[in-house]
Amino acid sequence: MKIAVVGATGLVGGEIMKVLEERNFPVTELIPVASERSVGKQVTFKGKQYTVVSYEDAIAAKPAIAIFSAGGSTSLKLAPQFAEAGITVVDNSSAWRMDPTKKLVVPEINAGELTKDDKIIANPNCSTIQMVVVLNPLHKKYKIRRVVVSTYQSVTGTGKAAVDQLFAERAGDKEAPKVYPHPIDLNVLPHIDVFLDNGYTKEEMKMTNETKKIMGDDSIAVTATTVRIPTIGGHSEAVNIEFENEYDLDEVRAILNETEGVVVQDDPKNFLYPMPLTAHGKDETFVGRIRRDESQPNTLNLWIVADNLRKGAATNAVQIAEYLVQHALV
Ligand code: A2P
Predict the structure, then answer these.
(1) Best mutation site among 18, 74, 126 for ligand 1, i.e. most ligand atoms within 8 A of its Cβ?
(2) Active-site entry in 126, 182, 280, 327
(3) Which of 4, 189, 264, 307 has its C-alpha lying 20 to 30 A from 248's C-alpha?
(4) CA-to-CA distance for 122 and 254, rounded, in angstroms?
(5) Average per-residue pLDDT in the chain?
(6) ipTM over 0.90
C-alpha cells in the first residue's frame, strides 16, 4: 500500500515513519511530503532513503492514505485536494476536529464509526487522546459528571524549533531564536496555543470540546489548565474525575489494567508512577497515583503520562490507518 506522510521532515512526521516501520504497516511505497523548501531532501524509512516530494507529486502518485502532520493551515488547504483525488487523509492538526462532518477518532474508543465515505479523518489533540483512553472505560462503568485537569506538557508538542529553543537556552545561548514568548528552560508557561476571549487557551478548550465529541457524550463537563514545562519525553496530566455513581478503587485499577493501550504504574512505596522519562518512545498511556479525592464523594484523582509524539500523535494516526486497512475502508 502506498502511504504519503505530509510533514515528513517534522517531529511528528519522523515519528509516524518510525511507528509505521515498528508496527510493520504494509507500506509498499512511502511518499514523504514537506514544504517547498524541503523538496529533494532525503528521509530514511526501513533503512532506505526516500526523496521528499511536493504535495502535487504526492497526489499524482495516488497513495491510498496520507497521514498529515504539517499544521492546521496546510491541512485546511491540502487535505481536501488529497481527498478529492480519492486519498484518505488522517490529519493530526486541529483543522477538522470539530467539523461536524468529520470523525474525531481514538481507535480504542470510536473507530467503529468509520466508513468508506470518511475521506478526512481527524486525529485528536495530544493531551486529549491520553486523557480519554483512561476516562472512557471509567465513564462506561461509573458515568463521569465532571473532569478537572491540569497538564504538564512537553516542548516536543510545539515542534522542532521549540526543542531547539530549550536546548539552546540550556547551553547558555541567549541569542537563539524564540518560539515561546518567554524562556522555557527553568521555567513553566501556563500558556499553550493562543488565548481566547473567554480567558482560556485554545489547548484548554480542545480538551473540553474534543473529549465530548470522542466519547460521544456532551454532558461530560471538562475544565482544563494547560501548561508547558521544560521536558521532552511526554505530556503529564493531573486529573480529578467526579462520577455520577459510587466507585470501588480496586475495581478502577482492575478496569484500567484490562484497558487496551493503558498501563497501570501505581506503586508509590517503590516510587513507581508514570513519568515522561519512562513514557518516552512508548505507544501506551501510563496511569498511576490512583487515589480517592477525600474532599468530596464519588471523586477520583489520578496521574496520566504518554509520549505526546506517539499515542498523542503518530501512534494514534497509524492505528487509525491500520483500522482502515483491516476493515477494507481504503
Ligand atoms: P518543512 O521541514 O519543509 O518546513 P514541526 O512541527 O516539527 O516543525 O514540523 C512541521 C512539518 O510540516 C515539517 O515537515 C514541515 O516541512 C511541514 N510543512 C510546513 N508547511 C508545509 C506546507 N505548506 N506543505 C507541506 N508541508 C509543510
Answers:
(1) 74
(2) 126
(3) 307
(4) 31
(5) 98
(6) yes
